[in-house]
Amino acid sequence: MKKCWILCALTLTLLLTACGGQTADEPAAEPEKDHYYQILDADGQELYTVTDDTAVAEIDALINEAGGESADHGSAEGDPLYTYVYWQETTLHAGEDPDAEREYLEVFRTQVRSDSNAVTTEVLSDTLEGVGDAINIEGLGGLLTFSAEVSQETADALRDPGQFAGA
């Protein structure tokens, strides 16, 4: 179980920091990938798209708090109240214009419930090209869903998505 959590935490950390492995022939640092959040209601309908850098950073901080050592494999019980969908720019490949517009991919979803402080994060394995091969694990899908109890303050902030809409 602990090995599963370590894998999930590592994957989420790599996604949130836009880091990746480098070889000696590669440039010193990859430019940071832009990202934003789409916030969905309990029915999966879009409420807000959050692109403001300050609001995105606030959501990042809340979601980072949800990934602690107390996380368990699998989804929390109950229906989600809100879902925060993390969209990230695709990787800039050699020869591509760094100023050109790039596609965004859905990377993970974080759900908060109305009746508990349990937060569930599902990392979408389709967007993790090669991660399973790199760590020698097949069928990552189910392994990349985990839940954690968060503080009342964090849960309440995630249950108030309107605060991010006006930014």
Describe this structure in words.
The chain is α+β, with helices and mostly antiparallel strands. 26% of the residues lie in helices and 26% in strands. The protein has 5 helices and 7 strands; from the N terminus they run αββαββββαβαα. The protein has helices spanning 2-17, 53-65, 131-134, 152-158, 162-165, and strands at 35-40, 46-50, 72-73, 80-89, 104-113, 118-123, 145-149. It has a 7-stranded antiparallel sheet with strand order 2-1-4-5-6-7-3. 23% of the residues are buried. Residues 1-24 have low confidence and may be disordered.
- In terms of DSSP E residues, the strand content is 25-35%
Structural class: alpha+beta
> What order do the helices and strands follow?
HEEHEEEEHEHH
Radius of gyration computed on alpha carbons: 16 Å
Number of helices: 5
Number of strands: 7
Secondary structure: elements and pairs:
Layout: H1 2-17, E1 35-40, E2 46-50, H2 53-65, E3 72-73, E4 80-89, E5 104-113, E6 118-123, H3 131-134, E7 145-149, H4 152-158, H5 162-165
Antiparallel strand pairs: 1-2, 1-4, 3-7, 4-5, 5-6, 6-7
Features:
167 residues, seven-stranded antiparallel beta sheet, 7 strands
Summarize the structure.
The protein is of the alpha+beta class. 26% of the residues lie in helices and 26% in strands. It has helices spanning 2-17, 53-65, 131-134, 152-158, 162-165; strands at residues 35-40, 46-50, 72-73, 80-89, 104-113, 118-123, 145-149.
